[in-house]
Amino acid sequence: MNTAFLGLGAIGRPMAARIAAAGGPLAVWNRTTQRAADFARETGARHATTPADAARDADVVITCLPVSRDVLALLDGPDGLLAGMKKGSTLVDCTSGDPATSRVIAARLAERGIDFIDAPVSGGVTGAEKGTLTVMVGGDASVLDRVRPVLETFGQKIVHCGEIGAGDAVKAVNNAFLAVHVLATAEGLAALKKAGVDPKLALDVINASSGRSNTSMNLFPERVLNRAFPRTFRLALLEKDIGIAAEVARENRVPAPILQLTADLFRIARGELGEVADHVEAVKMVEAWAGVEIA
Ligand code: NDP
């Protein structure tokens, strides 16, 4: 399939690299041109100068931008996606987006005979590099079937979740759990450290017990205890995700005080730690409040 990829960020770049490695025709576009030029030079992909240019001739256009609004903003204008995408093609949005904006994007595309699925991913940068991402899809199942071969280049578990926006909703709730676990694990381990228990030993116990999570099993041992805090997934993006999850709960009239509180705490963390901090660095906020380092 003739494919275009827009958004060569932390996760988009390795996803696009998997598509390039699979060998089909690929065009790439990135807001910061140099990133697309470097990628094209390294992989043999075509460097497109505008979204419209990238979409030209593409059967599948994949976007992976911070928020759905950014994708919506790429549609219009002489250089926009709608100027380049052909009838019968598909926009696959791998942004961890919000359901309401995805429905707006889908409706705009439908007017032109273009299909849309929301297809956010999970598994991090390493999962993208290995091609083992989980892909959660909202939209028409027959559209997913058509583009599945492209998704299989970077995804291992590809699940049709429901109507347009369903993939976004599942992704937001998944990441809400991640956000809750990061804060709760930090609070618990800070308390244990102050109570005189070694955090490494505590994690060893917890990871063989019922309170364990991906956060306790992987993130804390690999990123917190050793103070590495690698920057792979921006805290600002997780703050966006937990906000979407809280909104999904609100829209569906589900009281969700835990999600709302976590969303507020991540908003504070984003304010304190800034736009480039990694999501696990939220631990530093808890440590500052507790006056202790989890190490
Ligand atoms: P990054 O911040 O690393 O990259 C964002 C990308 O979007 C860059 O290519 C950037 O271009 C581009 N971009 C930003 N704003 C705009 C805009 N207004 N118009 C056009 N392009 C824009 O983000 P990630 O790659 O980490 O995340 C992308 C999406 O994937 C997010 O929704 C995120 O939540 C999700 N995600 C991320 C994961 C991760 O581990 N990093 C894991 C799973 C999902 P430029 O180069 O010019 O800055």
Structural descriptors:
295 residues, N-(1-d-carboxylethyl)-l-norvaline Dehydrogenase, domain 2, 2 domains, six-stranded parallel beta sheet, three-stranded mixed beta sheet, 54% helix, globular, binds NADPH dihydro-nicotinamide-adenine-dinucleotide phosphate
SSE layout:
Elements: E1 3-6, H1 12-22, E2 26-29, H2 33-43, E3 46-47, H3 51-55, E4 60-63, H4 68-73, H5 81-84, E5 90-93, H6 99-110, E6 115-118, E7 121-122, H7 124-130, E8 133-138, H8 141-151, E9 155-162, H9 166-194, H10 199-206, H11 214-224, H12 235-251, H13 257-273, H14 282-290
Parallel strand pairs: 1-2, 1-4, 2-3, 4-5, 5-6, 8-9
Antiparallel strand pairs: 7-8
The structure holds NADPH dihydro-nicotinamide-adenine-dinucleotide phosphate (NDP).
CA-atom Rg in angstroms: 20 Å
The residue ranges in which pLDDT falls below 50 over 5 or more consecutive positions are none
Bound molecules: NADPH dihydro-nicotinamide-adenine-dinucleotide phosphate
Indicate the percent of residues in helices. 40-55%
User: What global shape is seen?
Assistant: globular
Return the domain count. 2
Q: Kindly state the number of beta strands.
A: 9
The CATH superfamily of the largest domain turns out to be: NAD(P)-binding Rossmann-like Domain
Percent strand equals 5-15%
Provide the CATH topology of the largest domain.
Answer: Rossmann fold
Query: In CATH, what is the class of the largest domain?
Result: Alpha Beta
- Indicate the mean pLDDT: 98
How many separate helices?
14
Q: What string, H for helix and E for strand, traces the elements in order?
A: EHEHEHEHHEHEEHEHEHHHHHH
Strand order of the largest sheet: 3-2-1-4-5-6
The main pleated sheet reads as: 6 strands, parallel
Task: Give the distance, in angstroms, between the N- and C-terminal Cα atoms.
Answer: 49 Å
> What is the CATH architecture annotation of the largest domain?
3-Layer(aba) Sandwich
Broad structural category: alpha/beta
